[in-house]
Amino acid sequence: MKMCKSDACRPLRGETLDTVCQGRLKIIQPEEGYRFSVDAVLLVGLTRIHPRSRIVDLGTGCGVIPLLLAYQGVIDHITGVEIQESLVSMAKRNVLINELSHLITIVHADLRKMNAAMVGGSVDLVMSNPPYGKLRSGRLNPNSRKAIARHELLANVGDVVRAAAKLLPQKGRLALIYPARRLPNLLKEVCMNGFAPKHLTVIHSTLESEAKLVHLESIKGGGEELRVSKPFVIYRNDGEYTDEMKAIYGNAAVVW
User: Fold this and answer.
1) In the structure, what pLDDT confidence band is assigned to residue 185 with cuts at 50, 70 and 90?
2) Cβ neighbours of residue 61 under 8 Å, at least 6 residues apart?
């Protein structure tokens, strides 16, 4: 893959240039602000991506999810939506540096005010790692970028689900990563907004640990049957990745 050599594609002060996919993708991130985590890799790896899909990523941050999906080469197009202007600029530069403008569009918008026209019409799949830190519960991160990304300051999972409902036609799919401890809240919001939970994966750090996250795929206007997959475990007891996690990282291994 050719890489952009323009000065506009270089990291600025306070940013880092990292690589994923064994160095084949370059990603500019804030040095101390919100940096993408394993959640993004899990969302991409556990979501079923149909060939030639049109996708929207709500709360795209620096654009890592669109970059990973575009790199796989199976989608038709993906739009990343982000409210923070500084991250929008960063995501656009990441698209340029990897020369993926033909597959990725970055939109500066408040997801609570989304409509299908803003992303070029209805889409097949909406994805998101929504902010899931409840306000007034725990310490708010002093870094504003990180606080907005992790805490329900500007949007919550209900806002994400309602935005997805506006963008998706009947039978369109919604895929989310969310804390396992807040699964009842996630299921409530999904069902209240016209989606049927269809595929649930519970994610554990280790086999002996409590569930940390869940991955949920839902269908707008779908039936009531829910498939629960076997638990997904990230680490073995020796601290190495499990074979399942290695398979996901085969396409998105982060090299710091």
Assistant:
1) very high
2) 34, 36, 82, 87, 91, 149
Q: Please say whether the beta carbons of 139 and 55 come within 8 A.
A: no
DSSP tag of 9: G
% helix, strand, coil for the chain, step of 5? 30, 25, 40
Structure pTM? 0.86
Radius of gyration of the chain (CA): 17
**What value does the mean pLDDT take over residues 49-59?**
94
Which among 37, 29, 96, 84 has a CA at the least distance from the CA of 59?
84
Q: In the beta sheet, which residues pair with residue 190?
A: none
CA 143 to chain centre: 20
Q: Can you tell me whether residue 247 is helix, strand or coil?
A: helix
Sheet with 15-20: strands ordered across: 25-30, 15-20, 254-255
Q: Which of 112, 122, 102, 201 is nearest to 162 (CA)?
A: 112
Give residue-wise pLDDT tens across range 109-121.
Answer: 999 999 999 999 9
Assess contact for 253 and 25: CB atoms under 8 A. no
The answer to whether residues 79 and 95 touch, using CB atoms and an 8 Å cutoff, is: no
Give the residue extent of every domain in the chain.
37-255
Comparing C-alpha atoms, which of 107, 213, 121, 114 is closest to residue 155? 114
pLDDT at position 23? 80
Out of 3.40.50.300, 2.20.25.10, 3.90.470.10, 3.40.50.150, which CATH number does the structure's domain 37-255 have? Answer: 3.40.50.150
